[in-house]
Design brief:
- The structure is a single chain.
- The protein is mainly alpha-helical.
- It is 83% helix and 0% strand.
- It is elongated.
- It starts with a helix and ends with a helix.
Length: 148
Amino acid sequence: MPVGLAEAIQILASRRAGQRRPDAMGAAFNQGFFAVALICVGATAALKILWPLVGKWFVEMGAMGSLVDSYLQVAAYGIFFVGTSFAYSALLVAREKRGRWSRRRLSSRAPTFPSTTFSIYGKLGFPAMGMRGAALGSLAAETAAFLF
């Protein structure tokens, strides 16, 4: 749902930019961003609350089930950062700065692999955290992309 709303933000903001109405473009973004953020918060809460109840339908309980649960309980917080990053990207595309900004955004993801590797396998003095470390690495990368 956040991706669909981000596309709607892009369409509406692009239309307002084409009409040379930057105030209306900002209003479209603000309303869309609020909707995306609200849906992401709801999806995070739903995943954290419902996964323990419905997870057994998707993954066998036991070792694998607890690994998936430990990953999702941390990674669920990343939903907000990913969804709102989509909204900001839609605004940048609508403002026709996609080429210049997208290269910078990709460069902010470059440290993702080493930080994720360190947290999963315990390299360079970091403790080995397994699936929980993978979730923390993903969350850190999503947060960094959002802040960028």
